[in-house]
Amino acid sequence: MCPDHSRPHDPVPPHPLLSREEIGARVMSLGREINAALPPGTIHVVAVLRGAFVFAADLIRALPREVSCDFLAVRSYGAATESSGIVEITHDLGLPITGRHVLLVEDIVDTGLTLRHLIDLLATRRPASLHVCALLNKASRRQTEVPVDFVGFEIPDRFVVGYGLDHDQRHRNLPYVGVIE
Ligand code: IMP
Ligand code: MG
Q: Fewer Cβ atoms within 10 A, N terminus or C terminus of the chain?
C-alpha cells in the first residue's frame, strides 16, 4: 500500500523533482563511491539532524563495510525559506571523533554556511579524516566556499521538501523530493 501524501489543507502536493527510484539508485552508487574513496577502516557516519536522517538511514545500508553512527543537531532555519546565516548546535555528538574516519552527512548544501561551521567545528576534534556527503547541492546559492566530497544530485535554486527535508517541519515523510512554490 502506498500512503497518500497529499494533505487536506494541501491541495497541491509538492511537485516531484526526484523520484524515490532515482534517489534509491543514486544512494546505492554513492555508497560504492564512498567505499572506494575513503581510507580502510570503520566509517564513522555523522548525520546532521533533522533533515539528513532519512538519507543517512539509507546511505549506511548502501555502505559495504563497517560503520558507526552519530548525530548532530543544528538549527539554521526557522519557518522562513531563507538562511538566517546563524548556525546553532542544538545537540552535540555523543561519541568522540578523534582518530576516526568521519563522513558528515547533510541533506542539502545551500549557502554553505551551516556546513562551513560544522567542518570547522569537527576539524578541531582531530578526526583521522573528514569527508562530506550531501544528498542535494544548490551550488548557485553558495555564499562561502566549502568542500562537498560526494553529492547525490545538483539541483536548481528551488525550495525542496521530502525524503527528510522539511518546510516548517512538514513534508519530511514524502518518499520523493519535490518543489514547493
Ligand atoms: P545552508 O547553511 O544555507 O547551506 O543551509 C543548509 C540547511 O538549510 C540545510 O541543511 C537544510 O536544513 C536547509 N535548507 C536549505 N535549502 C533547503 C531546501 O530547499 N529545502 C529544505 N531545507 C533547506
Ligand atoms: Mg539540514
A: N
